[in-house]
Known about the structure:
Blueprint: H1 3-11, H2 14-37, H3 46-65, H4 85-107, H5 111-144, H6 151-171, H7 175-201
Amino acid sequence: MDFKQILTAIVADTSKHAKWLNTLSLMENTGARKISASEHKTDVTLIILKHAAEEHRHAFYLKKQISKLGAGLCADYRDEYLLATHDSRYYLNMLDVQVCKYLKSELSLSGNELKFAAYLLVTYAIEVRADELYPVYQDVLDSTGSKVNVKSIILEEEGHLEEMLVQLKNFSPEWERHAERAVQFEADLFRKWLVGLEKEVV
């Protein structure tokens, strides 16, 4: 099954759809927390604050969308309320570890420099994915007449990607090579995640 087929099967089942929204909310919340954790003690830009705030808002917004499917669904982020639980819960952490290893090896970074560079590359890779994932999800929502809507997230994710490109260009003249490596790491994790999601619907 391709991603759209998996999503179509998920959206067709109210319980699974609620868990899907909850899973996305968890992942957005994890992203927001990782952005905050990567912040320098004093050197915090407006873009970083904006990005962390918007990721938290996405987590909140997705969580609220669950109520459109029914009452009392997915109260929290416990395993039974998630899809592809292990892969979803550790997706960003695994990507962060892989990117940090790469940056240590390629650029010999450490400390705050490593944290910031990892933030840039991990976030870029995730924004590239979000730019693909949310529009496909919205297409499925539209085609099934669902009350759920993620159009506001799509607009903000597009803005995030533009902001990350500006920061990456300032980070390194070889930013494209480093960004491509992060995207490759993420693509491998995404394929593994899809396998887990497919198991939920077959």
